[in-house]
Design brief:
- This protein is of the alpha+beta class.
- The chain has one helix at residues 8-59, and strands at 63-68, 73-76, 79-82, 89-92, 94-96, 103-105, 113-117, 127-131, 138-141, 149-151.
- The protein has a four-stranded antiparallel sheet with strand order 3-2-1-7, covered by helices on one side. Strands 4-8-9-10 form a four-stranded antiparallel sheet, with helices on one face.
- The N and C termini lie far apart (65 Å).
Length: 152
Amino acid sequence: MNKKGFTLIELIIVIALMAILMAFAAPSMIQWRESAQVKEVARDILGGLRQARSIAITNNQNVTATIDPDGHTLTFGTRTLSFPSRILLQATTNIDTSANPPTASGWSGSDDKSTEFRPQGSATNSLWIRVNNDDRLIVKITSTASGLAKID
């Protein structure tokens, strides 16, 4: 009996066990990665809207932010942010602020939606952007007075 190494059978058993473990782990890793990419798009949209508001305040001029769900872009000033086409974007400006919490209707995956940020930081209208049809990933500008964007 050789005590200096592993036998071929031991190596095959270890490799088989590792393959079984990887088979169980792979689907959840893929799902986790896809979920992280969707959340990243929501954070990028939020960052873009906040940057548009900041530019309006800093440069003391109106800045229009336009989301194009079909083209998967957010445009403001001279900047355009592009998002992966496999991630569904929907937008609406039809927000019922009298409801508690405010609710949105008329989600569109094709019509461009815009809001304009003013030099004092306010926005001309409310704008909600839903990412991948997930109601937990909605980027919102609910208060036109403050123009602040957030993810709910």
